[in-house]
Design goal:
Number of domains: 2
Structural class: mainly beta
Number of helices: 4
Strand content: 35-45%
Shape: globular
Mean pLDDT: 89
Distance between the termini: 30 Å
CATH class of the largest domain: Alpha Beta
Helix content: 10-25%
CATH architecture of the largest domain: 2-Layer Sandwich
Largest sheet: 10 strands, mixed
Length: about 270
């Protein structure tokens, strides 16, 4: 796992997490994670933070979370903040809990988002149909947790797309021309800057799904949808994070835009 260090002092570490890598294990798969990279390169962080015990078929597995004070989804790339010691862990954890840390994401979503700026203030619960998914609005179940997400449109654009069609859904072709007069070789997408004010699991993905503008390439919340051609991952990137270090200084750490995004947004 190749990982770029974006910021480091004696207490805090910020890395550029690649897409396709989980932050920590889940007790089921054996794939390498950010936690494995930490234990290899920063063994002193082994006992920093809170590990989790996962039990499956009466077999207990301890999930290592060394220095991990927040997480990014497996397919999300960008800035991940880590604590190098227990004092830093409690200090950063407090900032997350008090919503003092500022996070900015970049995303490509399906369709044209009409309003230039918006605030989504919708609690998030569980999906009644899929235990892996969360849900905002009608049909959500279980404990509803408040969630607020701000966004602004950076650009609207049309792009060639790919889609996993079933044979029955393909337009009929006569003489090499699609019979469907409404068939288009490009479809609209929107390029957004997103600022979550709370830190719920899958928050941005759930809220954009609620707006009917799900994240492009999101296999869980946007399955089978059109994705910009050339994009082979979920189009969500943690661009920056702003926090206070143990000296009380405000630190802003930024991650460069993934090359895949630059090739798609034209």
């Amino acid at each position: 796992m190749k990982t770029k260090i974006l910021y480091e002092d004696s207490n805090v570490l910020a890395i550029d997490k690649p897409s396709g890598i989980s932050v920590h294990g889940d007790g089921r798969t054996k794939e390498k994670t950010v936690a494995d990279w930490i234990l290899k390169n920063y063994p002193r962080m082994k006992n920093v933070g809170e590990n989790e015990v996962y039990e499956n078929k009466k077999i207990k597995t301890e999930i290592k979370k060394p220095g991990i004070v927040h997480r990014l989804d497996r397919e999300t790339s960008g800035v991940l903040l880590l604590a190098k010691n227990k004092k830093a862990y409690e200090f950063l954890k407090s900032q997350f809990q008090n919503r003092e840390i500022k996070k900015t994401y970049i995303a490509i979503v399906s369709g044209n988002v009409k309003t230039e700026r918006g605030i989504i203030n919708k609690p998030i619960g569980r999906s009644p149909k899929d235990f892996r998914r969360y849900l905002s609005g009608r049909g959500a179940r279980g404990e509803m947790r408040d969630a607020v997400t701000e966004y602004r449109v950076l650009k609207r654009f049309e792009a060639p797309y790919v889609q996993n069609f079933s044979r029955s859904s393909l337009p009929r072709v006569r003489g090499g021309i699609h019979a469907d007069k409404n068939f288009k070789h490009t479809v609209p997408f929107s390029y957004l800057e997103i600022r979550p004010k709370t830190g719920r699991t899958h928050q941005i993905r759930v809220h954009m799904k609620f707006l009917n503008h799900p994240i492009a390439g999101d296999a869980l919340y946007n399955p089978g949808a059109k994705t910009p051609k050339g994009l082979k991952r979920m189009a969500l990137h943690a661009k920056s994070i702003e926090f206070k270090n143990l000296k009380g200084e405000v630190v802003k750490v930024e991650s460069k835009l993934p090359k895949e995004f630059g090739k798609v947004v034209v």
